[in-house]
Amino acid sequence: MSFKWLKRYMPRSLYGRAALIIILPVVVVQLVASFVFMRNHLRDITTQMTLTTTREIAVVLDLVDEADSAAEVLERADLLMAALLVGFDPVSEAAVPTSDDIGMFDYSAHVVREVVRDSLPQTLAVEMPDNRVVRIYVSTRHGPVEINFNRRRVTAAAPHQLILTMLFFGLLMTAIAFLYMRNQLRPITRLANAAEAFGRGRIVPYSPTGAIEVRAAGGAFLDMRARIERQIEQRTMLLSGVSHDLRTPLTRMKLGLALLDEEDAAPLLRDVDEMQRLVDAFLDFTKGASEGEPEKVDIKAMVTQVVEDAKRAGKDVSLVETEGEGRVMINALAMRRAVENLLGNATQYGTKAEVSVVLTEKSMRIRVEDDGPGIPEAKRVDAVKPFSRLDPSRNQNRGGGVGLGLAIVNDVARAHGGVLRLGKSDRLGGLRADIVIGR
Ligand SMILES: Nc1ncnc2c1ncn2[C@@H]1O[C@H](COP(=O)(O)OP(=O)(O)O)[C@@H](O)[C@H]1O
Ligand SMILES: [Mg+2]
After folding, report:
1. Number of domains present in the structure of the chain
2. Which ligand is the nearest neighbour of the Cα of 373?
3. Which residues surround ligand 2, an ion (CB under 5 A)?
4. Quick check: CB of 363 below 6 Å from ligand 1?
5. Domain carrying residue 143
6. 173-193 pLDDT, tens per residue?
7. In this predicted model, what pLDDT tens digit does every residue of 245-282 receive, in sequence order?
8. C-beta 390 within 6 A of ligand 1
């Protein structure tokens, strides 16, 4: 037997689950215990009270049976009636009900009837139409008699008081437990928030609090975060250090070459330019997603601007579709660099590029398509790795890059908790690159 289907009905948050685990058993135990207790307790009390009353009635009935005439019956009964607070009226045979009148769910009434019929064998009928009165019809030597008395004499006054008390204290304790539990769960939520923020490239202040297990997880997270930060920092310092140090001698070489005569210098100048381009690409990569701060950005306006810039540089680029409105929390500088890189690739490997932006409640997608050769599915993973250039024959005469463009885009997408997705363009037949991030 599998309980998988149950999963769908389970609360999804830890809070809800903990509440369920604590409250469900308590409620069930309380219900069962009070039901069993009430039943037995009520039965005992009702039986006792009914027996006391029927014993008194039996005494009266004995006297009635001893009487010689009906008139004497009334006389004798009148005296006792007042003393016992019991109503006593002789009735005609026709006035005796043919069956008992007892509420179906009136538990104590059933007990009363049982005891009355047991201890007063001459009983003809028992009526308990409401909560106020009990009527018993009995046969005597002088004809049937109706005996009535207050129901309070045979049943407990307020059996529901126990349930109300239990309910009240149950709710009170539940409320206290809820408050306490919320305090216990808060450290977990804080850890989750800190981890999520770090996943998106933001570092929020966090110090481990709460139960030792949560503290341990928090401490481990802090260690991990520190290590990753250190590594990123080292990578950045290494690459930017090398790049910076290369820049100065490159500039000096350029100056030196300017002094040579043009024919000899031209190929060397091209090489130096090329090297300068590579160094710039390294620097770009090291800055990657780490430069700049997250802010609320109007994506549409930003993409429009990037497209306009590319157009001004003489590229065949157009913004074909935008959907949805609103600002998104992103690192504008990094995102701009990512889109520029995608556009750069599109116009480098194809001849025209089309850009579209889709904003929904939950996510944002920037898509760049081109009419170039695209990237075959098997090579898409490689293309995204740093320093990867796909087989050079494809890139002939296109001024091959360093292989860092897509790596930068991927970095930026991930730093925003999103992804870079590569595919084949339906519109233009070339590469389709999507940056998708959650809002
Ligand atoms: N739009 C595109 N169309 C076809 N191939 C592409 C496209 N963009 C990237 N590529 C391939 O992916 C490789 C990696 O791209 P990228 O990281 O930008 O490096 P780079 O452009 O510096 O060579 C490129 O060498 C190229 O072969
Ligand atoms: Mg490129």
Report:
1. 2
2. 1
3. 345, 401, 405
4. no
5. 12-157
6. 888 888 888 888 899 999 999
7. 888 899 999 898 888 888 888 888 888 988 888 888 88
8. yes
